[in-house]
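Here we describe the complex-level prediction in full. Unlike the single-chain runs in Section 2.1, the two entities below were treated as one system.
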Amino acid sequence: AQSVTQLDSQVPVFEEAPVELRCNYSSSVSVYLFWYVQYPNQGLQLLLKYLSGSTLVKGINGFEAEFNKSQTSFHLRKPSVHISDTAEYFCAVIAVGASKIIFGSGTRLSIRP
Amino acid sequence: KAGVTQTPRYLIKTRGQQVTLSCSPISGHRSVSWYQQTPGQGLQFLFEYFSETQRNKGNFPGRFSGRQFSNSRSEMNVSTLELGDSALYLCASSGPGQIETQYFGPGTRLLVL
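The structure predicted for the assembly as a whole is:
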């Protein structure tokens, strides 16, 4: 079975500051890793994914994440945030070959002007 | 391509009633998954359909059921509604050879009174 832990339920940052949202996972099999973003009253939008290859993955809206197998982490980063990045961010895993996504509990990112 | 669409967007029902939600996947996508999102339990997998067959099922009672039609559109039914069924129900679709990458619709927000 797989599990995902998002260590911070809320992260407040100032506009134009860097941010890191932390994610750790647990799995006995190989997994794919994802970050999704959910804006208020909307569905989930795929930010980026790690399937294989380079451990540094670049996504939309200037976000990137680094897969660290030894630390079983997949932290999300952005060098400079904007007010429009205010949303909830979900880290997720899926076992290779499976179709069931396991989501973390989410991190609410709030941007202060 | 048009994205995943879900109807209706909002729904109010009373306890004991039943409800049917609809999801139209991205054109060419044959896999449709359903998730329930609540503040307390977060995002939880309900079931996945592929080519009109349920391939995977989460840990929900039998009151939750679904089906998929030959055009890949899917419906989810909840019978004998309970207050705890109030949630955002999200549908996601994935394309051939990319089962792991799921694209989400805007969701149907169900309120049970």
